[in-house]
């Protein structure tokens, strides 16, 4: 798993570090970490239906914030738990645009070992950077 | 953990960081704690309280309550009052779960009467009060009807038959913040929350059956005034907020404030999570009106859950909720910003009080609390972990220093991830059952995260609020049964 939970930030909430060789891999790892926060065994969520998520922002870290926020919205508004399948990030005129395809299914309390509801991604200590050729992010989720 | 060297003790329970502690601080930061509680606070608490002291228009001090712990933006337990004329409003000073709060409900039942039916009662509560990730409520409410909920809060519940008239009197602000404007909230927020009325959510949200044992009563006269009159009386306490609706309102405005804070208003802060806008600006006023919608959703949510609880108890005990004496003691909000009148530098004036994970605690004789509590002070409900117990307290005159604010819970000391490494949900459930506490949850991991050892000692936190003169202990309430998401 290209992410790990961090114990030493924001005690009451959930912080994670994610990484990837590309920005796209990093964002997919972030979506995986979000799913793992809510479901103990993410593989219990079957890849039944496709959902497309598109977000735009002026900076990469805010783009990750908007992307995770959209997945949190879909969890409540559509009851969807989603695995990232494809992520594409384009940069044009100082704006970043993310297009992603995710697959998942409706929340099923019988089959999905649920852990905790995520209320929101936060901006506290939010960080996206490329270090020695590896893209890394730190995110604090409010739970 | 080592404390910041600049931290100075200014009173037995008051610790101050001067404005020289960090660039940009406009007022000193004050942590209310005993020496023992202070030693257990993470470095993040001091940094975040100091960051709050940088917000434009802040008055007197940035405060952190004795249950304070590291959050995002404000610390959990953070309190700041702003000058409404020149100060800011910050969603990070309220939190994503706007009007997360506590409600305490009486019964005339005793532990001896409830114990034989505890499993039946908790199982039925678990079946009838939706909890957990992405849960939806039993109230079928259209999107346009939901706008009524946002404007009216608990008044909507009374119109629909989900409230007794006196419930509203026993709710902070009568269960409705005036001036809520549904046009200030996004379609996404409505989409996210319109079918979640009457749901608990997850994390540290729960509904608990508790008992007031005679040996746990600290102040018998006030306990009687609050309705605790029978030995081993059973009460119900629950904790939840405005659900996905409030979370989305906070998210929307955090993003919108981030765009204007520096670019339009020239405000620079040490943490983006503190994103803010001048209170009197169009953006500030729009957020205030939207936040009030979420506050009202929070009140309505807890009111509908109370309705459900009355049905459950009535079904199990074959008596009406009125016969079972299921009256509210009070309902307090944790995460809000509110215009209130407080004494600042010798003058009574209007200020905008941000409370994040902190409870309003009006003292005896103050306007704004029910007449029946005028002599005792406002009931304050502080929830502990599901293992250790919770407290009912009363507001004190000494809380004037903190804009009449006290603690809200016991405060975490261990991360959720660490707690899960220490115990499994199944093991904890078994241990609690042996101690007479019956728990239902659909999240084993979530249960382990809420283990008692992950929290500060609630006895120490409430004693600290008493020592600081913010609130006095009335009765400790011990858990019997609990449902959590």
From TrEMBL, chain A:
<keyword id="KW-0106">Calcium</keyword>
<feature type="domain" description="Archease">
    <location>
        <begin position="3"/>
        <end position="143"/>
    </location>
</feature>
<keyword id="KW-0479">Metal-binding</keyword>
<dbReference type="Pfam" id="PF01951">
    <property type="entry name" value="Archease"/>
</dbReference>
<dbReference type="InterPro" id="IPR036820">
    <property type="entry name" value="Archease_dom_sf"/>
</dbReference>
<dbReference type="GO" id="GO:0008033">
    <property type="term" value="P:tRNA processing"/>
</dbReference>
<comment type="similarity">
    <text>Belongs to the archease family.</text>
</comment>
<dbReference type="InterPro" id="IPR002804">
    <property type="entry name" value="Archease"/>
</dbReference>
<protein>
    <submittedName>
        <fullName>Archease</fullName>
    </submittedName>
</protein>
<dbReference type="GO" id="GO:0046872">
    <property type="term" value="F:metal ion binding"/>
</dbReference>
<keyword id="KW-0819">tRNA processing</keyword>
<dbReference type="InterPro" id="IPR023572">
    <property type="entry name" value="Archease_dom"/>
</dbReference>
From TrEMBL, chain B:
<feature type="binding site">
    <location>
        <position position="390"/>
    </location>
    <ligand>
        <name>GMP</name>
    </ligand>
</feature>
<dbReference type="GO" id="GO:0042245">
    <property type="term" value="P:RNA repair"/>
</dbReference>
<keyword id="KW-0436">Ligase</keyword>
<feature type="binding site">
    <location>
        <begin position="408"/>
        <end position="411"/>
    </location>
    <ligand>
        <name>GMP</name>
    </ligand>
</feature>
<dbReference type="InterPro" id="IPR001233">
    <property type="entry name" value="RtcB"/>
</dbReference>
<keyword id="KW-0479">Metal-binding</keyword>
<keyword id="KW-0692">RNA repair</keyword>
<dbReference type="Pfam" id="PF01139">
    <property type="entry name" value="RtcB"/>
</dbReference>
<feature type="binding site">
    <location>
        <position position="484"/>
    </location>
    <ligand>
        <name>GMP</name>
    </ligand>
</feature>
<feature type="binding site">
    <location>
        <begin position="383"/>
        <end position="386"/>
    </location>
    <ligand>
        <name>GMP</name>
    </ligand>
</feature>
<dbReference type="GO" id="GO:0003972">
    <property type="term" value="F:RNA ligase (ATP) activity"/>
</dbReference>
<dbReference type="InterPro" id="IPR036025">
    <property type="entry name" value="RtcB-like_sf"/>
</dbReference>
<comment type="similarity">
    <text>Belongs to the RtcB family.</text>
</comment>
<feature type="binding site">
    <location>
        <begin position="334"/>
        <end position="335"/>
    </location>
    <ligand>
        <name>GMP</name>
    </ligand>
</feature>
<protein>
    <recommendedName>
        <fullName>tRNA-splicing ligase RtcB</fullName>
        <ecNumber>6.5.1.-</ecNumber>
    </recommendedName>
</protein>
<comment type="subunit">
    <text>Monomer.</text>
</comment>
<keyword id="KW-0342">GTP-binding</keyword>
<feature type="active site" description="GMP-histidine intermediate">
    <location>
        <position position="408"/>
    </location>
</feature>
<feature type="binding site">
    <location>
        <position position="334"/>
    </location>
    <ligand>
        <name>Mn(2+) 2</name>
    </ligand>
</feature>
<dbReference type="GO" id="GO:0005525">
    <property type="term" value="F:GTP binding"/>
</dbReference>
<feature type="binding site">
    <location>
        <begin position="204"/>
        <end position="208"/>
    </location>
    <ligand>
        <name>GMP</name>
    </ligand>
</feature>
<keyword id="KW-0464">Manganese</keyword>
């Amino acid at each position: 798993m290209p992410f790990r939970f961090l114990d030493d930030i924001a005690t009451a909430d959930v912080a994670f570090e994610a990484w990837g060789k590309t920005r796209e891999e990093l964002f997919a790892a972030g979506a995986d970490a979000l799913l793992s926060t809510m479901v103990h065994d993410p593989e219990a969520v079957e890849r039944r239906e496709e959902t497309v998520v598109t977000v735009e922002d002026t900076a990469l870290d805010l783009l990750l914030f908007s992307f995770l926020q959209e997945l949190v919205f879909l969890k409540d508004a559509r009851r969807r738990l989603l695995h990232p399948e494809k992520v594409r990030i384009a940069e044009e005129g100082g704006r970043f645009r993310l297009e992603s395809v995710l697959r998942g299914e409706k929340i099923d309390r019988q089959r999905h070992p649920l852990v905790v509801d995520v209320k929101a991604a936060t901006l506290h200590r939010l960080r996206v950077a490329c270090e020695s050729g590896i893209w890394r992010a730190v995110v604090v989720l409010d739970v | 953990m080592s404390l910041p060297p600049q931290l100075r003790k200014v009173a037995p329970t008051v610790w101050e960081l001067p404005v020289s502690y960090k660039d940009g601080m406009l007022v000193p930061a004050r942590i209310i704690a005993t020496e023992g509680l202070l030693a257990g606070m993470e470095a993040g608490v001091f940094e975040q309280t100091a960051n709050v002291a940088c917000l434009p228009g802040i008055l007197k001090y940035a405060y952190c309550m004795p249950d304070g712990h590291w959050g995002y933006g404000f610390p959990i337990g953070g309190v700041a009052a702003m000058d409404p004329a020149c100060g800011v409003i910050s969603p990070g000073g309220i939190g994503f779960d706007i009007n997360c709060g506590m409600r305490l409900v009486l019964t005339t039942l005793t532990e001896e009467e409830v114990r034989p039916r505890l499993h039946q009662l908790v199982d039925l509560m678990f079946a009838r009060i939706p909890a957990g990730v992405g849960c939806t409520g039993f109230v079928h409410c259209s999107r346009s009807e939901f706008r009524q909920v946002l404007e009216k809060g608990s008044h909507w519940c009374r119109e629909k038959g989900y409230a007794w008239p006196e419930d509203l009197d026993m709710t902070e602000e009568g269960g409705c913040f005036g001036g809520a404007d549904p046009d200030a909230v996004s379609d996404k927020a409505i989409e996210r929350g319109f079918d979640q009325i009457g749901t608990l959510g997850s994390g540290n949200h729960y509904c608990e059956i508790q008992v007031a044992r005679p040996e746990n009563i600290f102040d018998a006269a006030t306990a009687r005034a609050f309705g605790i009159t029978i030995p081993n009386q059973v009460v119900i306490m629950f904790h939840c907020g405005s659900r996905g609706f409030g979370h989305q309102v906070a998210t929307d405005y955090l993003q919108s404030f981030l765009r204007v804070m520096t670019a339009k208003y020239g405000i620079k802060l040490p943490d983006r999570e503190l994103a803010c806008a001048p209170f009197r600006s169009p953006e500030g006023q729009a957020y205030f009106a939207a936040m009030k919608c979420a506050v009202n959703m929070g009140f309505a949510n807890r009111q509908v859950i109370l309705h459900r609880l009355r049905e459950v108890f009535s079904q199990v005990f074959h008596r009406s909720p009125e016969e079972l004496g299921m009256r509210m003691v009070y309902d307090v909000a944790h995460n809000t910003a509110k215009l209130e009148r407080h004494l600042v530098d010798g003058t009574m004036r209007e200020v905008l009080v941000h409370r994040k994970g902190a409870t309003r605690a009006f003292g005896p004789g103050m306007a704004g609390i029910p007449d029946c509590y005028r002599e005792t002070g406002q009931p304050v409900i502080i929830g502990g972990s599901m293992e250790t117990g919770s407290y009912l307290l009363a507001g004190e005159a000494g809380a004037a220093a903190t804009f009449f604010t006290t603690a809200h819970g016991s405060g975490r000391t261990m991360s959720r991830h660490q707690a899960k490494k220490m115990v499994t949900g199944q093991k904890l459930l078994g241990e609690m059952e042996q101690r007479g506490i019956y728990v239902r949850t659909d999240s084993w991991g979530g249960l382990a995260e809420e283990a008692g050892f992950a929290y500060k000692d609630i006895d120490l936190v409430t004693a600290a609020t008493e020592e600081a003169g913010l609130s006095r202990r009335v009765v400790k309430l011990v858990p019997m049964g609990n449902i959590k998401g």
